[in-house]
Amino acid sequence: MKEFAVFLSKLKSCCTLLTCAAPLLLIPAHAQDAAPKEGTLDKYINLDAKDTATKLDITNHTLYEQEQRIITLNFHMEYGDRVKLKRVAFASADRTLIPGYVFTPRTMQAGKRYPGLVMVHGGFHERFDWRWFQLVDTAVSKGYVVIFPEYRGSRGYGANHYRNEYGITDTADVLASADYLGKQSYVDPGRLGIIGQSRGGMVTLLAIQKAPDKFKAAVDIVGLTDLVAYMAYKPEYRRLEVAHESAYFKNKLPDENLAAYMEVSPINHVDKINSPLLVLATSNDKIVPLALHTGRLLDALKAKGKTYESHIYDNAPGGHIFMDGDTDDQRDAMKRTFEFVGRYLKP
């Protein structure tokens, strides 16, 4: 069994390197609102392929899908007595179906309309996992309904869903999830909020900039605010992954396509923010450095006269992932988050 576990670990590592070789096709991000022409076809991975690269890619995504099933089963086991989890598929702006999860109280009051929260994960190909369990459970216990969109780029939903579009399809899919949630009979569409961490913080900021009146409150936790800066200090393999997976960036780095990266950098659009915003970060963040991202965001929010609150933790345990810890700083951040959204969404 030990040898088999080592083999699977090595296999997953190999598959990750080969994932980008899969023959995928997504509608270009800048044409999301345009109807596809008759005769335009989608291409899918060949599940009966004989070549090693494609077979490894299929194995990789099969493992991701199985992991996701286990994660949802774990949530059911830990919280199923009080929180109902429902997997949904909602339509994004380009009519692509996006997977997600809706969390509601196990027992709901008939005729009541609950405030809704959109929770946005970060990471390069991350997804719903144990790190969000407590936040979801707390939100539902306080009287919210939660949607967790697995925007394009999330893993666990097949090869075609895996392709990343930083700031484009992720933001479109998150906004579509809010629209979907707001249309449910048990949700008050006038009381929607959004919470995001890391890349999810970036998407949260872009969402409240692109739809200034959709959310009554927003929370950005260690959010990436400047993609140009991000591409300047990241290792070469990550820079190439961001550029090469994206139709929007046209396989080009910022030195060849600067305008595209500036357009999806929230720091450049602070003037469009109307939603009250809570910003949380820590001084020892080595993934999204404080001075480069959150510090500049706070300066811009102040300069533009926006409604916001902030708290910077001093050397929080875990740094960028301090929200994953069972620590005083994590508990304080949870308290601040729900006090802030509660003030505007009134659960």
Structure description:
- α1 (2-18) packs across α2 (52-79) and α4 (169-182) crosses α5 (199-210).
- The protein has one domain (64-345): 3-Layer(aba) Sandwich (Rossmann fold).
- The protein is of the alpha/beta class and 347 residues long.
- The chain is built from 10 helices and 8 strands.
- The chain has an 8-stranded mixed sheet, with helices on both faces.
Compact description:
The protein is an alpha/beta fold and 347 residues long. It has helices spanning 2-18, 52-79, 133-141, 169-182, 199-210, 227-233, 236-244, 254-263, 294-303, 328-345, and strands at 83-91, 97-105, 114-120, 145-149, 187-197, 217-221, 277-282, 308-313. It has one domain (64-345): Rossmann fold.
Secondary structure elements and pairings:
Layout lengths: L1 H17 L33 H28 L3 E9 L5 E9 L8 E7 L12 H9 L3 E5 L19 H14 L4 E11 L1 H12 L6 E5 L5 H7 L2 H9 L9 H10 L13 E6 L11 H10 L4 E6 L14 H18 L2
Parallel strand pairs: 3-4, 3-5, 5-6, 6-7, 7-8
Antiparallel strand pairs: 1-2, 2-4
The residue fraction in helices comes out at 25-40%
Annotated CATH topology: Rossmann fold
Care to count the β-strands?
8
Radius of gyration: 20 Å
Assembly state (oligomeric): single chain
Helix count from the secondary structure assignment: 10
What is the straight-line distance between the termini? 49 Å
Q: Kindly name the structural category.
A: alpha/beta
Strand order of the largest sheet: 1-2-4-3-5-6-7-8
**Averaged pLDDT, please?**
90
Share of residues in strands = 15-25%
CATH-scheme architecture: 3-Layer(aba) Sandwich
How many domains is the backbone divided into? 1
CATH superfamily grouping = Alpha/Beta hydrolase fold, catalytic domain
- Largest sheet geometry: 8 strands, mixed
- Name the helix and strand elements from N-terminus to C-terminus, one letter apiece: HHEEEHEHEHEHHHEHEH
Which class in CATH terms? Alpha Beta
Shape: globular
